[in-house]
Amino acid sequence: MTGNPLPQAGVPRVRRRLEITGVVQGVGFRPFVYRLAREGCLTGWVRNTSRGVELEVEGEPAAVEVFTARLLAEPPALARLEAVRQMEVAAEGDRAFVIRESEGAGATEPVIPPDAGLCADCAREVLDPADRRFRYPFTNCTHCGPRFTIIRQVPYDRQETTMAAFAMCPDCRREYEDPGDRRFHAEPTACPVCGPRAWVEMEGRELPGEAVRVAAELLKAGQIVAVKGLGGFHLACDARNPEAVKRLRERKGRKDKPFAVMVRDLAEARRLACLDEAAEALLLSPARPIVLAPAREDAGLPPEVAPGHRLVGLLVPYTPLHLLLMEAAPPALVMTSGNLSEEPLVSDNEEARVKLGPLADAFLFHDREIAVPCDDSVVRALPGGAIPLRRARGYVPQPVALPVAAAQDILGVGAEQKSTFCLAWGDKALLSQHLGDLDSLETYDYFCRAVRHLAALTRRRVQVVAHDLHPDYLSTRYAREQAGVQLVGVQHHHAHIAACLAEHGVTGPALGLALDGTGFGTDGTVWGGELLAADLASFIRLGHLAGVRLPGGEAAIRRPGRMAAAYLHAAFGEHWDQVRGALGLSFDPLERRLLERQLATGWQSPLTSSAGRLFDAVAAALGICRVRTYEGQPAIALEMAAAAGEEPAYPFPMQVAGEKLVMDGPALLRAAVADFLGGTPAARVAGRFLASFGVGLADALLWARERTRLNRVALSGGVFQNARLLHHLTTRLEAAGFEVLTHRLVPPNDGGISLGQVAVAAARLRRE
Ligand SMILES: [Zn+2]
Ligand SMILES: [Zn+2]
Ligand SMILES: [Zn+2]
Known about the structure:
By secondary structure, the chain is of the alpha/beta class. The chain is 33% helix and 22% strand.
């Protein structure tokens, strides 16, 4: 590599060495350094090492200063500098700046970058008629493009990706080999001459014309098009066409669960949702997640997009294919995962023809294979910071740092719902993408394949498997079937709290409030409203919501009306049926007889302290949600219905029984129901209920602080996806001087459990 001017005699030269750790490989860092060095007329070298990147630059003192300042201030978009060590070394008088071979390639930890959304430079090229990549849907560079989803094996270079099928043309090769080019070592680089192609298929035959334009025309005409993207297929239709959206709901068998909407650009996003600066930044960030934000009343979207919802999930184009499609298609498209209800995402063309054929009118296909299916990530934008709800494309497999290093290779297998797994070694924990609910054979197969793949990519040999205590979860069975590994059982809510502690880099002890739907307790009952004192290795149950019957077990989870009956029974005793009648809550005669028997005798009705079930009961009692068509719907409906600005109006009594604080959920529900029957509108009752619940929980934590002297509190569990509750509770806690930890990196729901499991296992193994 040449082109550096020779040093001038007489000018003093200094040499500086920099050692940089963080995300600096596979993100265009070396070419960036090369460019900076050349611009500053500096000599020296840069290379990848097992820990990151190291480099030496030599030249005039002022130029070295400028180089260092720019290196720190303007690194490539996907780079994350964690630590930078600088030292002055003796000048060597070298004549050029070069990119050296990696040091000790064998010892290097494999780099597996996440997929990254289309960068501004590539977007410009795609829209520039003079550029050789004009309108090319697979344009990418070192700053953007597919990564995790195309990697079959490590090391991450083209031969080991699904791009191996495409031989680079001479032009692409030249860019790939030029350290001054944005595509220097961009493994998936391609162009219209040599790269993948897209086409539209309808009724088994390919339609003529430019694929993205043809697909856009079909969408304009109200058709449903299956679009192959980065990590799998989407089913797309015009979001402003109620007929099309309705048809998509019917075909997908998805009654109420909100659809995500891809918008052409930020202007269109602003037309649909109220976005603050942070939400907009998130929307446009390299991960390009679906961002949940308050919908505008005048957005003009039909209710079928997100029935009964006040939020809308938006995403912007994240590949050139989407960019070109959205340019000609309606400005807002429903983009929902291309799968049958609750099955894994479809990612293969042949499978798509079979499985999505009945759902889609046409396909926008391409011939770049997807090695790892990966859903869109979902985050909820809130004024206090975003909460991740689903961690997948764009974030996976970025590691989370563990506060206690794992002495062995640990696999956390997660729970059941919103399944993820987590591989940990040293101080690194690597969470898998969201895999769906682990309750079918299809998902189980997908889970097993994903574990094998990620273990192979990271070159890990799992020695310890951490799992939930629930004996019937498929994840638990998977753990038990592994030969020659050490098993570590981790209580569900302890794992929630440990996940929250771990992502904040702390080991505890801390107070933990874990609120969710279901988790297997150490006493064999169903937990879900838990007040703990915990560190990573162990926990004590300090308190919980009062136990209420779960009439018919699973049936009570699927039908919130049953849960309302159980709570009414607990709250009003023998008068419960009268109250039920007054609320207009009805059951068919058979179900009613069964319910009465279950509530009177406890037959097939285990006790539960679940907060999720209390929310179900309130939502059903108030008539806000009596039929559930997707997981978490009653709690979401309650939050959506709740009027803003309501005061905490209901008593939420607690008492200490046998050392444990028992929070009286039935009493809280009794007050809410009485208020409602007294004529207060459901929306206001819902608002008062959430405020009262939040205040009660804060009181419980004050009690716990008094007892334990712990001032730090971790909030976790699916219930903390509820922004209203989170707000009421954290405001109170912070006013009382608590240090409050909430989820920022992994979801508060069961998608974050696997991180907690490995954190607990790592801490316990350390202690042994
Ligand atoms: Zn790019
Ligand atoms: Zn090419
Ligand atoms: Zn949970």
